Amino acid sequence: MASISQQQLPKFLRGISIRQVRLGCGLVLFAYLVSHFLNHALGNVSMEALAGGVYYHTLFWQFLPVAIVFYAAALIHAGLGLWALYDRRQFRWKAIEPLQLVLGLSIPALIITHIAGVRLGQALFGHEKLYPQVFFAYWVVWPYKIWLMLAVMTIAWVHGCIGLYFWLRMKAFYKNAAPFLLAAAVLIPALAMLGLYQGGRSVVDSDSKEWRAENLSRQQVGTAAEQAVLQRIENYFLIGYLGLLGFVLLARGVRALHERRAGMVNLSYGNGKTVRVPKGLSVLEASLRNNVPHASVCGGRARCSTCRIRVIGDCAALPEPSMREAFVLNRVGAGADPAIRLACQLRPEADLSFFQIFLPQTTAATLRTSSPSRIGEERYLVSLFVDMRGSTKLAEKRLPFDTVFIVNRFLGAVSQAVLECGGQPNQFVGDGQLALFGLASDPQTACRQALQAAGMISANIDELNQFLSHDLREPIRFGVGIHGGEVIIGDIGYRDHMVFTALGDAVNVAARLQDMTKSLACEVVVSEEVRITAGLAEDSLPQQEVTIRGRAEAMIVRSVEHASALSALVNDLNAVAVQLPHDVAV
């Protein structure tokens, strides 16, 4: 029978890996934990409230379909935890990640006492142990067990919260939701533990012959022989589980020896750094083992693409991407390029040369707030270049502070206009500024926004001139160049000095057009590209044919003597656009 290809599978199945299964099982277990903790919290009200809460709790979780899902999730999650211990070759992760693994592996050994005493007692002998019986056992018979219960509650809760953090921290809503999630993460276990304390104290205060006769019958707690059977089961489980952990650790050692005998590979990072590692390690594990900084927001779980690398040279010898790796790469638009791989998933069998796409300093916070364009993307943008005229002359007879104050007020007036019209101030060069339009809009809207911004700049500068009229010998003047076209946008710079900007001919042309405002004696020069895309009439602005420095062919531009005229033109266009649907409907 022919195997099913990745493309034949539904999209949601292509995105499922072991980590997604572990996450799904963990969410089921965490939902049970929240339900159980909220039930414990009812102890702050009364024992009757505890009894009522546990009735509905067990009614839901022991409903057969739910119980099947719950126990399957528990077994799968525990099994995958052991697999994670075996599979992880490198433990030099951030402390929170090995902490999560250790806490998770300790839970079965700590919880078996409670499971054997309550669930197995009910399943094997029909015991009816509820809160009164458990409180009596933990507070009166074996007081040390209350500390064991509080410990396992804390460990299970912290383990679950770490897992939720790793899952949610890359979500767009996480920054706003984090304070509320933190409050819930603190309050729920605190109220649960306080509820257990209040319930236990109530049982201790109620302890009497009559109370014991009513709550400690054979039907409720069983016989000594039955308790002995449960104790043996508990001991056997602990021995078996610890033995299983030992077997996993032994298997890790055997695998390490086998990998070393299988050979070593060289990984070259493209910056002169080369490491030699055993076959079988992922590129990310190799980086961590050799203390090479490597971005990995999700910790190597294939939930993000920040560990992405670009392979240099022939990619034919590389192992095929797993279903999960292919899914992640397709999500970021890199699935069609065989040279782009996830470092956490690629386990090279031969020497490999590559370079990292993301900077090692990339974090979950920067990933949430950034888009694919931060690492390089080609887009149609409208560039608006504005420059203050006569700033050198302005500074001749002024104190440096005064000059800086005036220039900052000028740039502030320009930036306010750009932002209000939907653009983004981008670069500040002396008394000039580059603004970008179209990062979140279509080309026509971007062109109209840039033209509208030029008109608003004029109005803002007029207000600034009036405000500074007593301090200026002559009004501030300016020149604006506007041009649109395909540019490359992304983060440019070095280490901590990265800035988001645009590169390309369209940006350079906008700067040249701004220079031409001096020779054409106007405030704004608009390229024909922007005029056409914006939808302005051909006779709306004077036409000029100019030669742009650095370009062989002449270029048609439109000169605007007073930038304020652009506001009226764009307003007319927008008014027509608003009325058009109504007119068509009529």
Structural summary, described in words:
The chain is of the alpha+beta class and 586 residues long. The protein folds into three domains: 18-258, 3 helical TM bundles of succinate and fumarate reductases (Up-down Bundle), CATH 1.20.1300; 265-367, Beta-grasp domain (Ubiquitin-like (UB roll)); 371-585, Nucleotide cyclase, GGDEF domain (Alpha-Beta Plaits). The chain has 20 helices and 13 strands. The chain has helices at residues 11-14, 18-41, 47-61, 64-87, 96-125, 131-141, 144-168, 174-206, 209-215, 218-221, 224-262, 283-289, 323-331, 364-369, 391-395, 400-420, 443-467, 505-519, 528-534, 564-585; strands at 264-268, 274-278, 308-312, 340-342, 352-356, 377-389, 424-429, 432-437, 477-494, 497-503, 524-527, 543-547, 554-560. The strands form two sheets. Strands 6, 7, 8, 9, 10, 11, 12 and 13 form an eight-stranded mixed β-sheet that branches. Strands 2-1-5-3-4 form a five-stranded mixed β-sheet. β7 (424-429) and β8 (432-437) form a beta hairpin. The chain starts with 10 loop residues before the first helix and ends with a helix. Residues 1-9 and 580-586 have low confidence and may be disordered.
